[in-house]
Amino acid sequence: MTLRAGLLGVGMMGRHHARVLREIDGIDLVAIADPGGDPHGVAGDLEILPDIDALIAAGIDIAVVAVPTQYHEDAALKLAAAGVHTLVEKPIAHSIDAGQRMVDAFTSAGLVGAVGHIERFNPAVQELRRRIEAGDLGAVYQVVTRRQGPFPARIADVGVGKDLASHDVDLTAWVVQSDYETVFAQTAFKSGREHEDMITITGRTASGVIVNNIVNWLSPMKERLTVVTGEKGAFVADTSTGDLTFYANGTFPLEWESVSSFRGVSEGDVTRYAFAKREPLRVEHEAFRDAVLGHETDVVTMAQGLRTLAVVEAALDSARSNAVVVL
């Protein structure tokens, strides 16, 4: 069965969706809509339709929504009413209430509603999850993420919390298979805009894992790192390169005194894994396609996307009130 796909929005992210939708087996990109036209020239022989209504009228089975966050709810509710399975870019919506209405609409219609938290599909994170599930780390104690880099001029409608920290909140909760339960956050506003450009979220998951997410738009170097520490050692996932390294706890005490006093712990083997590094967006689309076809996949559900938004909103509330927030 080939799914007829429609794409709403062909901007910075939408152009990549257009390319991947054309490359994947079992999907036929039949319609594109964008009120702003086709700035990156990705339509090919398809007409650029004016709006979501015209996209639905093209007769589609699935849709990808890649317009600014404030327009997600309107598009998603119309797609749900039309019986179209939908993947919306992250964050799910501009508010918790809007996200809840989207979750309810897709649930009651029996449709797949998904959110594009793409970092979950990064090859390093996928391999990390597989190895934790296999017991390679034993009990998980702590997750630390660092997502830092220069300011992106294209983001104007949200701060770094919703734009970037949402990636880390989703992948952290997914990797440890437990939701955030408490958060305490701090923000900074250094670039003269109304939204925060720096956030640190400290928290704990329901399973007792300690979490720290360090995120900013103010760093001259780009860093995308997830460190998971547990009973048997530590995993380091670099999502900018797709590399995963495991630092095992040592079984041999160091006999060279000057080194042991400097390093402080006995070191075990360090392993950098070799595995297929597929494009995260393609893996995400395949998971969405397979979910629509009724298979069990890692697709980020709208309920999970809403939970991530709730955690980020709680973090922003915490920063404003300087208090711990319990979710």
Tally of separate helices: 9
Calculate the terminal CA-CA distance, rounded to whole Å: 42 Å
Main sheet overview: 9 strands, mixed
Shape: globular
Structural class: alpha/beta
The residue ranges in which pLDDT falls below 50 over 5 or more consecutive positions are: none
Cα-atom radius of gyration: 21 Å
| CATH topology title of the largest domain | Dihydrodipicolinate Reductase, domain 2
**Largest sheet, order of strands side by side?**
14-13-12-11-7-10-9-8-15
CATH superfamily of the largest domain: Dihydrodipicolinate Reductase, domain 2
How do the helices and strands follow one another from N- to C-terminus?
EHEEHEHEHEHEHEEEEEEHEHHE
What proportion of the residues is helical, as a percent range?
A: 25-40%
What portion of residues belong to β-strands?
25-35%
Mean pLDDT: 94
Count of all domains: 2
- The CATH class designation of the largest domain is Alpha Beta
The number of E-state strands comes to: 15
Any idea what the CATH architecture of the largest domain is?
Answer: 2-Layer Sandwich
